[in-house]
């Protein structure tokens, strides 16, 4: 009843048809704690399997009996299976790929399935075994796990409205406090949105009560928008609208809101991209909120194209340029009105900061830019802005 009894035929039979066995129970029987797992096996197709389960099952096929308890070190199992041609993955070797790696992970294909969160971590897809968001506000979010843990999550495959982290009771799994964008994971997804960084998405593929939860890597997504709103439990939650990039398990529809030709799907490198000498054109349609050109022109004319925040009047050639910025966003779930009392005249820089929450306006028109107090927003008496929209704008960004 030793490792030497495992044959190439028996182990490859296990890889061809992986067993439905709980790795924790198998490891407990052999005296190998789950929390000290060091290796996983790359199975056939798209699965990562627990190395001890593979070895014990292969031994049973070859001899009719299990491996002996307390006699096998995991390193010995790894060496024996590797000698039989099995693709063995080492935690120590693979964990280095996790740190701040944005985009795809070399060697991991979209659709690959992993036997538990530890296997996901070892493969370099996600840093943590429990947290849903991997990353921080400095580098952005590397990956998220969608596991059905938050009642407010919306998962439509190619489109995800993801709930941020924090404020949840660990026993009841209900929200008991407000979430903020200052927590590490929420700040990471906010950074990914502002800088257009891709995020890996991993989904749990089995029900909560199943002890053999599996996780599937579903490719790269972009964070299109973020905001705060009151969740089902009555507390403010951070929300992130995420859309699949081309090549993901769930491709966005052909008439979706994103042009796939402009989406970055590769991991950043230090090489200068070659680009395309003759970019192709393709017809697309998009479901967009119709904006009134007359409303935009009216508000810009009120200020002669001068930014209400920084008082800059940007001139390009012989023409002034400014932008109409909605205070309460038009798109779902905000559903703000396209009216003059919900619009500001801003320069491009201030517009980006306003939409990203770096520029906030109090009800008394005092401005805050990146947390620092500034002068009041310039507002004409005949421009009757609804201050409730400023309050809403602050609520989704604080």
TrEMBL record:
InterPro entries: HNH_nuc (IPR003615), PUA-like_sf (IPR015947), SRA-YDG_sf (IPR036987), SRA_YDG (IPR003105), UHRF1/2-like (IPR045134). It comes from Saccharopolyspora cebuensis. This is YDG/SRA domain-containing protein. Residues 249-291 are annotated as: Disordered. It comes from the Bacteria. Residues 103-244 form the YDG domain. CDD domains: HNHc. It holds the Pfam family SAD_SRA.
